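Try this one yourself first.
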């Protein structure tokens, strides 16, 4: 059927309107970039829990290691505590002699349904070798983590370290294969063996807990001198799309304008996440080179939240470069752009299209961003229950959870009932629980409305019927107290109960 010009024009308009309506809201959005400038976000790790975005970053600002910020909409951001508050940073990490602080690098946070905990991976310089190792920590909340590595004492050990110290391990990330739910740990091997060995990115299989080692590492990509990568490839992020496995990575020196983002994909001959990958011949897909606004563009992370489309988060210095190509800025800020899967240049071996980011450089002009919001409510490590407005229950897993992790389940309210409470030695409370709920329990002792003693947090399960905690202060004899038990999970209060206690003279 042939259409007249007027009819064909109407049809074309309708088709365009239909296509625009089908696109994600982010596809046409203009991002301020950087998203905020009131605090840096070097080596950002992005996660989405309970309807909120959380970004973790490298360093220690004196309040803790791995500063966290949170946002409900990717535009309005506020501080949200730390991966490790000061005083809870693992002691296997070396102390920087310049300021006496322990630092972590590139933290990434996931929720693992198999253990019903949040898991953080990070790198840090080990005190015994001064080489960087991969660390792992767990929590019932997306903050205030507790170290849990491998070894005789998991609380005081890294997850993986090189005993011979010929290279460092950094930039760990987790990937879940949607085909069989197998989990993989990816990281960079940063060589320093005196033989000019090129840095590479490797992957290895891990157990459902993201901790147990199920096999040796397999090389995915290696840095190629004489190309844009130079001596370094780092910051691996893997996703599954269109039946292929895509690895996003950064290359070159992070403090120079040559730092950029590249991508590689699995081939049809060996279409597995732990196979040698094929690099995109048009790499890099995102760079700041030649840009007078942004420099050192990279260390990306990919999120694919339903309704928001695949988003690329990364960092950049502001202020351009000097004559040598070194970045003039001193702080790296959080950036964001949409991933478009429409870049031609593929082949039957690797597929027809590659991802594209904006026009190959960051969007925005370096002057955007929103003011700092009020601090997001986060309870102190070992403190009481989270205040109202905390992270809240995490959403139930959808039909297509992000391949890099697992969406947290919904938190179901349940009853915690405290039976008898007895005091032993003036500082130890022993409980009988009539019913319990899984989570982190915190005990507070009150006299009237005044708190007189607290306990450290303790993890309990639904089967637990006995509870023993040590208070931070002695209870005076001959007085009556109210003992309150609060259980939280995923940042939300899931159970609480109180009991009376009379201390004999």
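Now uncover the answer:
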């Amino acid at each position: 059927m042939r259409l007249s010009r007027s009819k064909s024009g109407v049809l074309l308009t309708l088709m365009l309107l239909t296509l625009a309506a089908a696109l994600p809201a982010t596809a046409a959005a203009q991002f301020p970039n950087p998203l905020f400038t009131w605090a840096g976000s070097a080596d950002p790790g992005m996660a989405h829990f309970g309807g909120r975005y959380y970004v973790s970053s490298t360093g220690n600002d004196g309040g803790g290691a791995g500063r966290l910020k949170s946002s409900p909409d990717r535009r309005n951001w506020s501080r949200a505590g730390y991966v490790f508050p000061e005083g809870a940073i693992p002691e296997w990490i070396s102390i920087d002699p310049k300021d006496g602080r322990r630092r972590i690098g590139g933290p990434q946070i996931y929720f693992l349904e198999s253990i019903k905990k949040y898991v953080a991976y990070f790198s840090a310089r080990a005190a015994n070798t001064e080489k960087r190792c991969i660390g792992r920590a767990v929590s019932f909340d997306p903050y205030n983590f507790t170290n849990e590595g491998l070894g005789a004492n998991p609380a005081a050990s890294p997850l993986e370290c090189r005993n011979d110290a010929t290279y460092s391990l950094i930039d760990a990330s987790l990937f879940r294969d949607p085909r069989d739910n197998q989990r993989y740990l990816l990281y960079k091997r940063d060589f320093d063996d005196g033989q000019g060995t090129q840095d590479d990115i490797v992957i290895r299989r891990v157990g459902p807990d993201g901790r147990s080692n199920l096999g040796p590492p397999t090389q995915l990509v290696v840095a190629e001198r004489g190309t844009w990568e130079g001596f370094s490839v780092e910051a691996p992020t893997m996703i599954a799309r269109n039946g292929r496995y895509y690895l996003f990575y950064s290359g070159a020196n992070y403090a120079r304008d040559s730092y950029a983002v590249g991508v590689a994909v699995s081939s049809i001959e060996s279409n597995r996440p732990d196979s040698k990958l094929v690099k995109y011949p048009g790499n890099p897909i995102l760079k700041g080179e030649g840009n007078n606004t942004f420099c050192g563009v990279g260390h990306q992370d990919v999120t694919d939240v339903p309704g928001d489309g695949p988003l690329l988060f990364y960092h950049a210095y502001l202020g351009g470069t000097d004559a040598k190509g070194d970045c003039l800025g001193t702080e790296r800020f959080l950036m964001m752009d949409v991933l478009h899967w429409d870049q031609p240049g593929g082949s039957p071996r690797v597929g027809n299209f590659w991802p594209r980011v904006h026009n190959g450089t960051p969007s925005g002009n370096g002057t955007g961003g929103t003011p700092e919001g009020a601090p997001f409510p986060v309870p102190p490590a070992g403190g009481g229950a989270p205040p109202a407005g905390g992270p809240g229950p995490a959403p139930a897993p959808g039909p297509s959870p992000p391949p890099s992790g697992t969406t947290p389940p919904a938190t179901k309210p349940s009853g915690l009932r405290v039976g008898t409470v007895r005091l032993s030695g003036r500082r130890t409370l022993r409980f009988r629980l009539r019913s319990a709920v899984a989570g982190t329990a915190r005990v507070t002792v009150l006299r009237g409305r005044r708190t007189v003693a607290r306990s450290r947090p303790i993890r309990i399960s639904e089967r637990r019927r006995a509870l023993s905690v040590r208070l931070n202060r002695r209870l005076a004899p001959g007085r009556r107290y109210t003992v309150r038990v609060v259980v939280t999970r995923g940042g939300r209060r899931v159970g609480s109960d109180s009991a009376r206690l009379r201390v004999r003279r």
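Discussion: The domain at 40-357 is CATH 2.115.10.20 (Tachylectin-2; Chain A). The two ends are 99 Å apart (CA to CA).
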